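Quick one, tokens below. Sequence please?
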């Protein structure tokens, strides 16, 4: 069973004007941007209609600077810069010249499809809503149904299939010794309810109208499309962009420039797939010179990439022009793997330091901690979070988190058990005393939220995947590559000083690699 017809319509071109392509030379850019040999090679490439240029760029190597210089050199070419999210779009709009339109995939999709659902838009579904809508008898099946639908919406596929059923679902029902329900059928039912609006609680999610847009076969009327952060783009967005350069349309198709860092892919859990690895390009270029940090940090990052990611190219740092300022114990950034460890650290610091949270404290779900704490203490009437409120007791919540392999929720349960009733007092005090990020002496963030940011002094916590086992580097075969990528992202946020928590495995890993290289 698949969705009924979604009323596919071919997307009318919203931007008028005769198409122009790259069969020309334009004056060199006169902007004051000092570029490297690697960057100049990219900036000099003229693309023909339908051609694809792939740029593999390490952390801090000036991706945006390169793209800005490229577009400034070609003022008569109409570019679409496809941004990963709204904040990136707004930042890009400030940096790029007037011949570049910065948009997110969702904004393009909303203009064509999403506006029809503007009164029914929701951020997502809750398990208890899905249970009621589909008449299911347990949270696990509801969660796996949601995951199946989400994986379809994030894919380039035309219909829901068994390929979209998460592996965690199969494992769960095998452990239970029970037959797995027809999650494909449930996902289709949920998708139809999302589209037709028959149930008030099941609205249209943003990825839903994005999928409708992709299936409609949109035509993007630009001369060149810039797809940034391609390693974090999910297949549905890749399909929207790369469908523009199908072989049968290459004579009048836009060129495409795809930019990203394979090793900064950290959103696989959201359906992201590394477009860079699978993409066939007419040309491939590299950016390896980082302007963010020196060779000490670059060498540490290279160790992680070469051992665990089999990367053969080397990230190069930039020589410091002035002596390093010392580590400031009153001003640095803490990067952790989970919100739970950040909360633990915040409890230790908020009484004596001005602490803040990157992106704002509202993004760290402290109220969820309180709701789980009330559930743990059998104070169900105090639980505010609607999702947590659907569980009859803490044991069921903890079992659910383990069954669906929700590591973040499991870590929340562990923190609640550690602090007991005192947790709620700590949450209230942290919310009262936390300052804005620019006022903070000590800033706290997860590696996911740190992506794209940088600070002089960085302390990496100890809750990342261990890099050492039995005195040797771990075997990467049994580890999700995103876990190594998260370590790489965390390490490369530092501009001057990079330090690690005393219990982190990373310093020992570095020593082992150095020792092996000397032998």
């Amino acid at each position: 069973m698949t969705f009924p017809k979604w009323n596919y319509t071919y997307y009318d071109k919203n931007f008028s004007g005769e198409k122009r392509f790259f069969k020309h030379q334009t004056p060199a850019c006169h902007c004051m941007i000092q570029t490297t040999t690697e960057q100049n090679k990219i900036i000099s490439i003229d693309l023909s209609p339908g051609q694809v240029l792939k740029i593999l760029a390490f952390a801090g190597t000036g991706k945006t600077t390169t793209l800005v210089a490229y577009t400034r050199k070609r003022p008569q070419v109409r570019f679409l810069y496809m941004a990963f999210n709204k904040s990136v779009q707004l930042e890009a709009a400030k940096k790029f010249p007037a011949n570049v339109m910065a948009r997110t995939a969702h904004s393009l999709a909303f203009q064509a499809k999403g506006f029809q659902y503007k009164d029914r838009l929701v951020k997502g579904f809750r398990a208890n809503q899905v249970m009621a809508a589909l008449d299911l008898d347990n949270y696990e099946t509801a969660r796996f149904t949601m995951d199946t639908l989400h994986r379809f919406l994030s894919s380039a596929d035309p219909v829901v299939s068994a390929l979209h059923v998460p592996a965690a679902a199969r494992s769960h029902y095998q452990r239970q010794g029970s037959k797995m329900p027809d999650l494909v059928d449930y996902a289709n039912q949920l998708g139809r309810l999302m589209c037709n609006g028959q149930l008030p609680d099941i609205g249209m999610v943003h990825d839903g109208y994005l999928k409708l847009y992709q299936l409609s076969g949109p035509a993007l009327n630009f001369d060149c499309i810039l797809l940034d952060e391609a390693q974090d783009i999910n297949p549905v967005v890749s399909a929207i962009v790369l469908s523009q350069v199908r072989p049968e349309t290459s004579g009048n198709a836009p060129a495409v420039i795809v930019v990203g860092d394979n090793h900064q892919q950290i959103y696989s859990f959201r359906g992201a797939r590394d477009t860079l690895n699978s993409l066939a390009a007419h040309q491939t270029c590299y950016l390896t010179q980082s302007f963010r940090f020196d060779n000490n940090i670059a060498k540490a990052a290279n160790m992680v990439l070469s051992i665990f990611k089999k990367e053969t190219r080397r990230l190069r740092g930039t020589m410091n022009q002035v002596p390093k300022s010392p580590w400031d114990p009153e001003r640095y950034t803490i990067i952790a793997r989970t919100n739970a460890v950040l909360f633990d650290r915040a409890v230790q610091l908020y009484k004596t330091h001005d602490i803040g949270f990157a992106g704002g404290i509202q993004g760290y779900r402290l109220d969820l901690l309180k709701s789980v704490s009330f559930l743990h203490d059998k104070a169900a009437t105090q639980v505010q979070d609607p999702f947590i409120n659907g569980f009859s007791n803490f044991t069921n919540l903890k079992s659910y988190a383990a069954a669906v392999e929700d590591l973040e929720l499991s870590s929340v349960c562990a923190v609640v058990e550690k602090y007991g009733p005192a947790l709620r007092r700590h949450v209230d005090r942290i919310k009262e005393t936390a300052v804005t990020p620019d006022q903070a002496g000590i800033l706290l963030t997860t590696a996911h939220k740190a992506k794209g940011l940088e600070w002089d002094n960085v302390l990496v916590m100890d809750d990342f995947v261990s890099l050492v086992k039995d005195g040797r580097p771990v075997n990467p075969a049994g580890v999700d590559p995103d876990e190594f990528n998260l370590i790489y992202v965390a390490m490369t946020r530092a501009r001057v000083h990079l330090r690690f928590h005393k219990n982190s495995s990373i310093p020992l890993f570095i020593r082992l690699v150095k020792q092996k290289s000397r032998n």
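The CA atoms of residues 4 and 442 lie 53 Å apart. Confidence is low (pLDDT under 50) at residues 1-32.
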